[in-house]
């Protein structure tokens, strides 16, 4: 019966290897081709073992024993290569220690006929020449076994990450089963039954097909819980059956089957509470603590909910999570989505607190495997995953160095309304145990509770930053305003001094020139020169007068001389002074002013305003264009309680750009191309000093009125024109109860 049982074990081993090969292929592990070939080597070796079992059934026990030795040597070779491949050792270097033994075994098999029939004999023990290759295989097995133990011990001392240690711990079980299988093959010589080899193959399949393996401590805990529960239930069942037999066995109609069913039903009801009690007791023995996640999350939320400062929030959150989960160290990063480059990316910015080391920012593109992992799964990422999973092989050396410098074991994302806003990075646990699913679930719950506090802190941080920027802007504006006021005062002082100092010599020059022009016997050529001097003097005098008037009105250095004024008559007087210019340019001017009330104002200053507005229209209207002045009465309003008179000066000229509608009323402002500037009073687009409209604004505002311009825009081709509006308030002089009405003005020039 031993040989069919051995055949069954061999078939089970082959099935496990074939299934493991398929799982390795699906798992896409690193060096998967190497691992797959090595597992296939196991398959072929175990197929040979099946044949040996079949030979053993037919009675050739010697051949079976030698074959088992060769198979043990083959398994040692495969296990050696698998162990080194697991630790990222190259296949070439691993084969350097295997090939000499393969050549030794092959050489002994080829040349064994040259050896004597019996190589060695002592008493009943002998070494036939047929066993020489098997002896070489045994020595190779022993050498590789010692090599695997030494290599495993060295690697165990170099592994610091708990997840890697938990994974490498399975190799201790594999090597133990390998040693037991060797003892079974070479010492115990059980008849072709190898349960250790089946366990070793199953452990290898589990190790290569599971990325995150369960720590042996938890496997032991689970096994102890269920084994203890099972044994206790069996004991209770036996004791209950014996008690039932003693109490009710002598009664008529007693059926042990009914008694057993009732006992089984009672034990089924006791199973869950019994399992829970045994689990608590074993956790106490193994010093395993099961945290109350709901209670921890509640306390955590209460501690961070009132923190509105980002730096303080990060410090408290990291400290609380480290204390709760028993972690060595931790960091918090704000995640900011950026659109600065061609493709979106996520910038990780560390929120540092005093005493923490500097951590540079890291920017990851949207299609980066780490970003894709967090956005698609929204679950923690282990450093163990970064080291082993194939999707993270594309990390650049700079990124690998950044993550390695953190010395973190787990990265927990923080999401708010589907947006990735933060990242926790935590170091290993203080008890050096790997992170379990329960630990990761706890960290995820705490991270999500942090999301609300982060959003609140971000809002406060944005408000503080905005407030700081507003204060800086206000301070800059205040400084600029003071500078503008200083420059304006300086300019006004200059204009005032210059105009005051120029008025006297210009008056003298003008007087002497006019006296010379009055002489009848003056030479005609000299008269021509004097007329030119007179015109230039008058022009300069008008400029000085405008500068002086603007300064006086702007700084309220002298009050306006108010009297009753007929605005229609003033517009008509200004038009009469410009008839010659209208004729030279073939322009037409029409005035339509209905009967309007007299206003109370300065006649001289208002005359200058109307003259300037008409002159401005002539300058910027092309030849053959039209100018139009109309007036109307405005009803009383909040701005003008007693009503107002509105005069509209329209033209068909080049118009005014929207961006210049306010600027043209500032002093010395010139629109258009300054290279085309001309001082001509008649020429189209002829420039001036830039004081005309500024004087108009100063005069109108001194009368508590308002002036503005409306225009579709500036266009030297289609000439959209412009409309200058002047509003002058109506006021009753002291003692008067009625307002005088002026006559209508309807006139066309020339």
Indicate the overall shape: elongated
How many β strands by DSSP? 16
Tell me the span between the first and last alpha carbons: 137 Å
- Mean pLDDT over the full residue set: 80
Low-confidence stretches: none
Q: In percent terms, what proportion of residues is strand?
A: 5-15%
Q: Work out the count of structural domains.
A: 4
**How many helical stretches?**
21
The assigned structural class equals alpha+beta
Order of strands in the sheet with most strands: 5-4-3-8-7-6
Helix residue percentage: 55-70%
Cα gyration radius (Å): 52 Å
Largest sheet: 6 strands, antiparallel
Task: Describe the structure concisely.
The protein has 750 residues and is α+β, with helices and mostly antiparallel strands.
How would you describe the overall organization of this protein?
The longest helix is centred in the middle third of the chain and has 81 residues, at 437-517. The protein has helices at 2-27, 32-57, 61-86, 91-95, 99-110, 132-158, 162-188, 195-209, 216-248, 256-285, 293-304, 310-325, 369-377, 383-388, 397-406, 437-517, 524-554, 567-577, 579-584, 603-619, 692-702, and strands at residues 118-122, 125-128, 330-338, 345-350, 362-365, 381-382, 410-416, 419-426, 563-565, 588-593, 599-601, 626-634, 644-651, 706-710, 722-729, 745-749. Helix content is 58%, strand content 12%. It has four domains: 2-213; 220-285, no CATH class; 293-461, GAF domain (Beta-Lactamase, 2-Layer Sandwich); 559-749, Histidine kinase-like ATPase, C-terminal domain (Heat Shock Protein 90, 2-Layer Sandwich), CATH 3.30.565. α1 (2-27) packs antiparallel against α2, α9 (216-248) runs antiparallel to α10 and α18 packs across α20.
């Amino acid at each position: 019966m031993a040989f069919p049982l051995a055949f069954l074990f061999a078939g089970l081993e082959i099935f496990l290897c074939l299934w493991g090969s398929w799982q390795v292929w699906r798992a896409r592990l690193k060096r998967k081709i190497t691992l797959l070939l090595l597992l296939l080597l196991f398959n072929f070796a175990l197929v040979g073992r099946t044949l040996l079992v079949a030979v053993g059934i037919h009675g050739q026990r010697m051949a079976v024993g030698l074959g088992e030795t060769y198979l043990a040597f083959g398994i040692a070779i495969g296990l050696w290569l698998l162990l080194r491949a697991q630790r990222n050792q190259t296949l070439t270097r691993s084969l350097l220690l295997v090939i000499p033994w393969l050549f030794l075994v092959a050489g002994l098999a080829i040349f064994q006929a040259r050896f004597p029939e019996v190589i060695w004999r002592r008493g009943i023990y002998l070494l036939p020449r047929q066993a020489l290759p098997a002896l070489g295989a045994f020595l190779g097995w022993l050498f590789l076994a010692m090599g695997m133990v030494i290599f495993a011990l060295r690697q165990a001392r170099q592994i610091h990450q708990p997840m890697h240690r938990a994974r490498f711990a399975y190799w201790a079980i594999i090597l133990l089963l390998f040693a037991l299988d060797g003892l079974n093959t070479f010492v115990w010589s059980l008849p072709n039954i190898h349960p250790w080899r089946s366990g070793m193959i199953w452990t290898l399949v589990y190790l290569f097909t599971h990325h995150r393996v369960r720590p042996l401590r938890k496997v032991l805990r689970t096994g102890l819980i269920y084994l203890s529960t099972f044994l206790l239930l069996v004991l209770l069942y036996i004791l209950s059956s014996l008690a039932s037999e003693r109490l009710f066995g002598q009664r008529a109609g007693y059926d042990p089957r009914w008694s057993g069913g009732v006992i089984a039903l009672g034990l089924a009801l006791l199973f869950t509470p019994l399992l829970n009690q045994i689990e608590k007791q074993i956790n106490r023995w193994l010093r395993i603590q099961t945290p109350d996640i709901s209670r921890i999350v509640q306390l955590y939320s209460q501690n961070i909910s009132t923190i509105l400062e980002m730096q303080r929030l990060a410090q408290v959150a990291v400290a609380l999570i480290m204390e709760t989960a028993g972690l060595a160290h931790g960091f918090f990063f704000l995640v900011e989505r950026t659109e600065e480059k061609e493709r979106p990316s996520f910038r990780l910015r560390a929120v540092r607190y005093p005493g923490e080391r500097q951590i540079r920012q890291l920017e990851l593109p949207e299609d980066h495997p780490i970003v894709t992992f967090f956005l698609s799964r929204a679950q923690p990422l282990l450093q163990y995953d970064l080291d082993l999973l194939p999707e993270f092989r594309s990390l650049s050396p700079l990124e690998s160095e950044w993550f390695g410098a953190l010395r973190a074991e787990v990265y927990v994302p923080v999401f708010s309304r589907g947006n990735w806003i933060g990242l926790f990075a935590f170091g290993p646990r203080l008890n050096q145990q790997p992170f379990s699913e329960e630990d990761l679930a706890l960290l995820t719950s705490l991270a999500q509770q942090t999301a609300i506090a982060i959003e609140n802190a971000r809002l406060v941080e944005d408000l503080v930053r905005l407030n700081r920027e507003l204060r800086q802007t206000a301070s800059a504006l205040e400084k600029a305003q003071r500078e503008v006021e200083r420059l304006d005062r300086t300019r006004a002082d200059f204009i005032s001094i210059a105009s005051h100092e120029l008025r006297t010599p210009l008056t003298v020059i003008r007087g002497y020139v006019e006296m010379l022009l009055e002489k009848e016997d003056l030479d005609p050529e000299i008269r021509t020169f004097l007329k030119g001097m007179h015109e230039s003097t008058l022009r300069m005098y008008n400029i000085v007068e405008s500068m002086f008037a603007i300064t006086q009105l702007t700084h309220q250095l002298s009050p306006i001389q108010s009297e009753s004024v007929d605005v229609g008559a003033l517009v008509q007087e200004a038009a009469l002074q410009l008839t010659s210019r209208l004729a030279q340019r073939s322009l037409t001017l029409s005035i339509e002013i209905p009967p309007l009330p007299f206003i109370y104002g300065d006649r001289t200053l208002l005359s200058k305003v109307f003259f300037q507005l008409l002159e401005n229209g002539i300058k910027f209207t092309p030849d053959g264009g039209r100018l139009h002045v109309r007036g109307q009465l405005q009803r009383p309003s909040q701005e003008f309680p007693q009503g107002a008179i509105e005069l509209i000066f329209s033209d068909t000229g080049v118009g005014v750009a929207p961006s210049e509608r306010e600027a043209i009323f500032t002093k010395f402002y010139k629109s258009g191309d300054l290279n085309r500037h001309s001082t001509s009073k008649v020429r189209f687009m002829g420039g001036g000093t830039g004081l005309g409209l500024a004087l108009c604004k100063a005069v109108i505002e001194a009368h508590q009125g308002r002036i503005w311009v409306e225009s579709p825009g500036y266009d030297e081709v289609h000439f959209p024109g412009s409309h200058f509006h002047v509003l002058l308030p109506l006021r009753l002089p002291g003692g008067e109860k009625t307002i005088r009405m002026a006559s209508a003005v309807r006139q066309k020039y020339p």
